[in-house]
């Protein structure tokens, strides 16, 4: 079992939770779901309404981490 958790990356990867799909720490909500909602045109508020177990901080940290990996040196 691999668990990645910090204030910057609240991700859990565990083969016993959704077959090892990366999920928000402490939930069964796949990280991919956040990106799917954005891609499909939903707002973050709609995502939080559908997945209340995901905190705003966790989602924001995931988006920030994604931005940093795509747009390095974006200060």
Structural overview:
Helix content is 41%, strand content 11%. By secondary structure, the protein is an alpha+beta fold. It has a three-stranded antiparallel beta sheet with strand order 1-2-3, with helices on one face. It starts with a strand and ends in a 5-residue tail after the last helix. Residues 1-8 have low confidence and may be disordered.
Structural class: alpha+beta
Mean pLDDT: 87
Strand order of the largest sheet: 1-2-3
CATH T-level fold name = Arc Repressor Mutant, subunit A
CATH superfamily (homologous) name: Winged helix-like DNA-binding domain superfamily/Winged helix DNA-binding domain
Observed structural traits:
single chain, 75 residues, alpha+beta, Arc Repressor Mutant, subunit A, 3-stranded antiparallel sheet, 3 helices, globular, disordered N terminus
Brief account:
The protein is of the alpha+beta class. The chain has helices at residues 31-39, 44-50, 56-70, and strands spanning 2-4, 11-13, 23-24. The protein is globular and about 35 Å long.
Secondary structure elements and their pairing?
Elements: E1 2-4, E2 11-13, E3 23-24, H1 31-39, H2 44-50, H3 56-70
Antiparallel strand pairs: 1-2, 2-3
